[in-house]
Design a protein that fits this description.
It contains 12 helices and no strands. The N terminus is likely disordered. It is mainly alpha-helical. It has one domain: Orthogonal Bundle (MetI-like fold).
């Protein structure tokens, strides 16, 4: 009998702890009650209020019913316009977000040093406190209908969010942990891979989520003012002809994809952090 088995046999507190740590897996732990049912209930409530308000509280022309919206969305997809304009927006967002993440990651790591923090902080704070609409209008005035307009606006408005998250994560790395790795002669590459990167993972995921949400808004807003393609351009066109159904259809298509990406990101985060115990307050 091993030492671990003897301890488990002779120590009732240890056995109780083990029993508490590994509760029986039931249908409540599948996530159905804690996650999916409340989410489904939220959708039902929103759709119910929407259906009730259409034609009663608000004119049906101004607020179409959910079924009318679904028909409009299906028509947009069948016409091929969705793939063309959505593809243009997605391409700008992908390029802008990637560049913003590279810039934000680089500056965030550098800001762990006092001289770099003093050098970059005024610019980062100034951009964070400036409305995104300002950078959108500047980009449109400089680049016009060129795709560089949305991309540049995305980079400028997004990288500060990445920078702040990464900088705070780097500063929060325990010094004792790094000192211990040096004491055991851990190489720089292994220290980066097994200490720094895992510790920065929550901050990195938060930076990606915030950055991507900002990029979506800025890209659409830039297309709204200065573009001949993209979701923002189509929203502006539907607004000009006062087609509420078309305007809301593009908005909901846009939001549906954003929710899909958020769900995929949540799955990735749960898989990456599956070793962490969940804390319920």
């Amino acid at each position: 009998m091993t030492v671990a088995q003897q301890t488990a046999t002779t120590d009732p507190d240890s056995a109780a702890t083990t029993e508490r740590a590994d509760p029986p897996r039931g249908w409540r732990q599948t996530g159905l009650v804690q996650s999916w049912l409340p989410r489904l209930l939220g959708y039902i409530v929103v759709l119910g209020v929407w259906q009730f308000a259409s034609g009663r509280l608000v004119e049906a022309f101004t607020l179409p019913t959910p079924l009318r919206m679904l028909a409009e969305m299906e028509q947009i997809i069948d016409s091929g316009q969705f793939w063309r304009h959505f593809g243009a927006t997605l391409q700008r967002i992908a390029i802008g977000t990637f560049l913003a993440f590279v810039v934000g990651l680089t500056i965030g790591v550098l800001m762990a040093r006092p001289w770099a923090d003093s050098f970059f902080r005024p610019a980062v704070v100034s951009i964070l406190n400036t409305p995104g609409l300002v950078f959108v209008l500047v980009a449109v005035m400089i680049f016009g209908f060129n795709p560089l307009g949305p991309i540049s606006a995305i980079v400028v408005t997004t990288f500060p969010f990445v920078t702040v998250n990464i900088a705070e994560g780097v500063k929060a790395i325990p010094k004792d942990l790094l000192d211990m790795s040096r004491a055991f002669n851990v190489t720089e590459a292994r220290r980066l891979r097994q200490v720094v990167i895992p510790f920065l993972a929550p901050y990195t995921f938060a930076a990606v989520r915030y950055g991507f949400s900002i990029a979506w808004k800025i890209a659409t807003l830039t297309e709204l003012f200065g573009s001949s393609s993209g979701i923002g351009f189509m929203i502006r066109r539907e607004f000009e002809v006062f087609s509420m159904a078309g305007l809301l259809a593009w908005i909901f298509l846009f939001c549906s994809f954003a929710l899909l990406l958020e769900a995929l990101l949540q799955v990735g985060m749960r898989r990456y952090f599956r070793w962490r115990p969940e804390v319920v307050i």
